[in-house]
Design a protein that fits this description.
83% of the residues lie in helices and 0% in strands. It has 143 residues and is mainly α. It has one domain. The longest helix has 33 residues. The protein starts with a helix and ends with a helix. The model has no long low-confidence stretch (mean pLDDT 89).
């Protein structure tokens, strides 16, 4: 999972490109009100995931006294995990802000929706990596 961020970014760019290329958010396929609804949904889900990630970071802080976490701190793995959490939290925050801002556009709302959905896909792909790492930590603590 060393290159998971680069892979997530690449997949998100490919997703946004195909959405743009196929015209999935263009006027004949989606009305402006539907795009505003989509952007509102992206903003809500991003804000919710941002809250869950902050709660997961609080859980990590509460278990920082365990032997596993102390060993992870010595080897540098804990810093990598925290960096991934902060990166994913930032990505969901940016996704939320861009979705809210794009929903206020009139003329270029389709472009804003493509950009916001691309960042949202990037955030969700990062979440897969963070979730996997967090799962590994929680399962190892129980052993």
């Amino acid at each position: 999972m060393k290159h998971s961020t680069k892979l997530a970014f690449l997949l998100a760019v490919v997703f946004a490109y195909f959405v743009w290329r196929w015209g999935l958010f263009s006027a004949p396929r989606m009305a402006v009100q539907d795009l505003r609804t989509l952007l509102g949904l992206l903003a809500q889900v991003s804000a919710t995931m941002l809250g869950f990630l902050l709660a997961a970071m609080a859980i990590l802080a509460s278990i920082s006294g365990t032997r596993l976490i102390r060993n992870m701190q010595k080897t540098g793995h804990f810093v990598v995990l925290l960096n991934r959490f902060f990166m994913n939290t930032t990505a969901f925050g940016i996704s939320m802000v861009i979705a809210i801002a794009a929903s206020m556009l009139n003329a270029r709302i389709a472009d804003g929706a493509i950009f916001a959905s691309g960042i949202f896909v990037f955030s969700c792909l990062l979440l897969c990596d963070v979730g996997w790492r967090f799962w590994l930590v929680l399962t190892e603590i129980g052993q």
